[in-house]
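Exercise: predict the structure of this protein bound to 5'-O-[(L-methionyl)-sulphamoyl]adenosine.
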Amino acid sequence: MKKFFTTPIFYINDVPHIGHAYCTLAADTIARFWRKKLGRENVFFLTGVDENSQKTVDAAEKLGEPIEKYLQKMATIWRETWEKCGIDFDDFIRTTEPRHVRTVHEILQKIYDAGDIFPGEYSGLYCTGCESFLKKSDLDEHGNCPAHKVPPQKIQEKNYFFRLSKFQKPLLELFEKNPKLLEPEKRRNEILSFIRGGLDDISISRENAEFGIPLPWDESHKIYVWFDALINYRSGCPSEDFWKNSCHFLGKDITRFHCVIWPAMLISAGISTPAEEFAHGFFTVDGEKMSKSLDNVISPLELSQKFGNDALRLGLLSAFEFGNDGDFSFAQFENFYRTKLAGGVGNLFNRVIVLIHKFLAGKKPENLNAENDEIFKNFEKLLETKKIRSAIEIFFETVDGANELLNSTEPWKLAKVDLPAAEKVFAKLLQKLEILASMAEVLLPETFPKMQKMLGDEKKVGAPEILFPPVEK
Ligand code: MSP
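Solution:
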């Protein structure tokens, strides 16, 4: 079996923050889990950037930079940020790349040939921040876009439209057939009630827009950025075998694009729809929405430089269950690092290995294996259903269990009076460390090789190491 995982492609009018990192780290963790199960060649993880947006044009203009230079600079920043954060993507797509433009043209032509695109006149409201058309009923009491707090633009122009209204029934049938088309349940219900409420045709081109991909049959129009962006998942998919088991991760704010417009586009073009989509929640920082005006935007690099990539990953992913909303705070993150990583996992590995050196001259006692299988099976089940936080909990429960065993049996005292009994305790502890290492391959990928080194070979354990060094306040 092959598996294809994607993140949304990010707007690059600014640098990444931990909200973006959250989704990317979650997708990366699930991809790592499946790589461990199926082998590297059977898993493909795609991420990338959404460049054909008015936001990028505005950002480049503000800096007085030529757009191509700005895009190159920002795409590099995003790509390198993910690399520095230990995200192991297989491909990074940019929507200005020729391979993407080609796929967009192919798919749009198919939709056009199917008769689902028609010319018309658009008159209405548009928010560049959202890159989305708004209805009057969407606006707040001041007539502003509720997300961006600015008035939307009034637009009246000749546009091409996508006949989305035609897809109400096919979409409902599709959701009926495929319960994984959108998870969790709450998001699925929202989308179903949105579809049941009736779908309007949508404008998919902008006349004389300065930037973007032109329509294949009418070059005077540029394709609406969402209509081009969604297609990245096809441009970046390596083969139909991968497409069959595609899974899109996305935030809850963009489910209508992904679960209404995107499957309708695919049905129209005669392409199979994604196998799975999963919408995660949003997190606030100390109870507030992250925003420049509140000066509370946190860079993932800031956390990774201070605490390391594995702490960044687990600190974010363990804050609340994947799919829910939650909060992030520095204090909570530091506490997690100190108590769970340094004081929990790090300390456990160090103590056990040091004791085995001291009392058994580093020689490994014989191993028993049954209990480990059970723990790992539970861990697997949770990750198969994308319950990342619960999987992390199993990891820490195992750490706590091992620390309790160590403290209650006190093998450093036992070894002096009954060495064979102490050896049995060490065997149990080593077993726990092995299962922890195997979960760490997915959850703590940069710590995993260090754990392996400490666990040594069949006969002897390796040298003890500090896995999570103390950090300054
Ligand atoms: N370019 C579009 C996606 C196109 S996909 C075909 C876009 N980009 S974005 O950069 O604005 O957002 C990308 C993702 O980041 C979204 O899934 C969004 O939900 C997520 N997040 C942005 N802020 C977030 C938080 N504070 N918390 C969690 N996720 C957040 O939308």
